[in-house]
Amino acid sequence: TADEYEKKLVSVFASRDSVKVPLFDLLLLGCGPDGHTCSLFPDHPLLRETEAWVLAINDSPKPPPKRITLSLPVVQAAAKIGFVATGGGKKDVLKQIFETEEGRNLPCGLVNGGAGEKVSWFCDTAATDGVSFPRRGSVI
Fold first, then answer.
1. What is the pTM of this model?
2. By the 8 A CB rule, do 137 and 119 touch?
3. Where is each Glucosamine/galactosamine-6-phosphate isomerase domain found (predicted)?
């Protein structure tokens, strides 16, 4: 369960009183065609959670409906974040994330903007054709 996983993280990273969020050295994330990452989906109430480290989602818009995910603050706090996005099916969402305000509010856009220089994107030509990337961090 989400509670069990959070307890495990607390035991590894320290007591919740001394650590606001766990600090992962590296998170390697995917970018869904709708802009979701982990199990954080666009416009879902879990995006607004600021206290919990681990969240249960019972109404996922994509199968399976029941999932466990790290919260947005935990993801953004990682020392380094790598996104992998490949294939032409990712081009539209990458264009949104990097070129529109709406895209910056998608879960991947929130991680990208909130974690700044700590984020690197690993993409192929099919995913990035015609996408304007800012020159910060790394784009490979």
1. 0.88
2. yes
3. 2-119
pLDDT tens, residue by residue, 66-91:
999 999 999 999 999 999 999 999 99
pLDDT beyond 90 at 17: no
Determine the straight-line distance between the first and last CA of the chain, rounded to whole angstroms: 36
| Whole-number pLDDT of residue 79 | 95
What's the CATH number where 131 sits?
Answer: 3.40.50.1360
Q: Residue 114 is encoded by which pair of tokens? A: 């909130």
Q: Which residue has the tokens 């709406």?
A: 102
* Exposed / middle / buried, residue 131 (Cβ in 10 Å: 0-12, 13-18, 19+): buried
| C-alpha distance from residue 137 to each of 38, 48, 66, 73, 90 (Å) | 21, 26, 34, 20, 20
- Residue given tokens 């001394």 in the structure block: 18
What is the pLDDT at residue 9?
86
Boundaries of domain holding 99? 2-139
Helix (H, G, I), strand (E, B) or coil at 93: helix
Q: What is the count of structural domains for the chain?
A: 1
Q: Taking a C-beta distance cutoff of 8 angstroms, is the pair 123, 129 a contact?
A: no
